[in-house]
Amino acid sequence: MGILSAVGQSLGGLILMFGLIILIAAVAMSHFTQHSTIQPVLTNVIYGMLTKDMSPSDIEDQGVAYQSACVSENGHLELNASGEIGTISLNCTSIMEEQPQNVLQGIAATIFDQIYYRQNSCDVIQCIMQSSGNGRFLVLITDAGNKFFNSLIIPSIAAVIVGISVIAVSIRKWHGILKSVGITFIFVGISVLIFPFLDAYMQKLVPQDQASTFTQIMSTVYDPLKSELIIILVVGIMITIIGYIGAYLEKGGKEKEKDQNATSSASKETPPQKEA
């Protein structure tokens, strides 16, 4: 039974750990890939790419050029983008309504929306496997990617429940269960300590002119992720402490009961004293 209990505890701990990791990542990425969260961030990134090395007057001139092109077009302009993005259709009505200096900002928002809501002939995993280069991961920041991360939440919660159940069946004592579950939570949550080092390392890989954009994107991803890991860490510490207190009290109660039984047995074995 001891070996089976140890195997069950280890298996339950692994299921719980991976379930927690997937759950935390899925919740964080689900938040990040919501249209309302990611749209302002990536629109600014696209706008920065469109206006790179351009002065304010250049930006305004470019806006005028797009508006002039719209005059001769039938409601839409086609913009050929590189890589996995493909062709972007621009609404001339929106372009004509903008001030020239704001046209490129509007175009950036349009490009993002068409990337975000585009229909793929493959699911997220298939798109990643079938594409090549860095563009293969573009699907992760689309509406399909958001739905994919949402779809992972319930299965990962189920994995957490299964992991805790396996631990409970293997250990059976409530304080032992709390200790095992709490230590697993701590092991997952303590990974929050690597974020400063990871951020510093990633900053070194990013060109200086893109540092502010990178920081904005990473903070959008990291902030909710760090909050979730801190909660997991705190909960893990609390239930681990409760588990150890429970084990200590149970041990103390057994020792006290043992002493009382020993005293009772000794008093029964002592023969009565005869009167003189």
Notable traits:
276 residues, mainly alpha, 2 domains, two-stranded antiparallel ribbon, 10 helices, elongated
Largest sheet: 2 strands, antiparallel
Query: How many domains comprise the coordinates?
Result: 2
Arithmetic mean pLDDT: 83
Supply the helix-strand structural class.
mainly alpha
Which blocks of ≥5 consecutive residues have pLDDT under 50? none
Distance between the amino and carboxyl termini: 59 Å
Proportion of strand residues: under 5%
Describe the SSE topology:
Layout: H1 2-32, H2 35-50, H3 56-71, E1 76-80, E2 87-91, H4 92-97, H5 103-116, H6 124-130, H7 143-171, H8 174-189, H9 195-205, H10 211-269
Antiparallel strand pairs: 1-2
Q: How would you explain this protein's 3D organization?
A:
This protein has 10 helices and 2 strands. It has helices spanning 2-32, 35-50, 56-71, 92-97, 103-116, 124-130, 143-171, 174-189, 195-205, 211-269; strands at 76-80, 87-91. It has a two-stranded antiparallel ribbon.
